[in-house]
Amino acid sequence: MDSATQLDATDRRLLREVQRDGRASVVALAERVGLSATPCARRLRRLEEAGVIARYAAVLDAGRLGLGLTAFVQVSLASRAEETVEAFHAAIGRMPEILAAWAMSGETDYLLQVVARDLEDYGEFATRRLLRLPGVKDTRSAFVLRTVKPPAGLPV
């Protein structure tokens, strides 16, 4: 399946259910979407092989893991030279505190989602690690005060 994949209503129901509960058995999923187990398993396998289902994962509670602070960090690079960009990408890929990173249009080059224990921990991360990354010219941080809508599955 490519970016223009045509999904039928059953595929969409199946994808919604898998997003809601990735641990559900094929039998349970089949029941929820109105199929028997064999065709459900076949559809799942097809969606996995096509990359529509990229992976299965558990959603962890950051607060219960002692990671009570989430920051969104805008990063500007000093240069957009290929070697600078590649070094930056490699460096952030090795930093587990950075949950996600996006190359952006507009005033800044990147937006990072970062977790830390608290403000002091984030300060250490920012000054000792983030600001020392290859090519980083400037950063601006915004801190999450409250989650209004947690991340949800894709609308399928």
Keywords:
2 domains; Arc Repressor Mutant, subunit A; 156 residues; Alpha-Beta Plaits; 4-stranded antiparallel beta sheet; 19% strand; alpha+beta
Quick recap:
The chain is α+β, with helices and mostly antiparallel strands and 156 residues long. Helix content is 35%, strand content 19%.
Characterization of the model:
One of its GO terms (biological process) is regulation of DNA-templated transcription. One of its GO terms (cellular component) is cytosol. It comes from Neoroseomonas alkaliterrae. This protein is of the alpha+beta class. The protein has two domains: 9-49, Winged helix-like DNA-binding domain superfamily/Winged helix DNA-binding domain (Arc Repressor Mutant, subunit A, Orthogonal Bundle), CATH 1.10.10; 63-143, Lrp/AsnC effector binding domain/regulation of amino acid metabolism (RAM) domain (Alpha-Beta Plaits). 35% of the residues lie in helices and 19% in strands. It contains five helices and four strands, in the order αααβαββαβ. It has helices spanning 9-20, 26-33, 37-49, 82-93, 119-128; strands at residues 69-77, 98-103, 110-116, 136-143. It has a four-stranded antiparallel β-sheet with strand order 2-3-1-4. Helix 2 crosses helix 3. The radius of gyration is 20 Å and the shape is elongated. The mean pLDDT is 95.
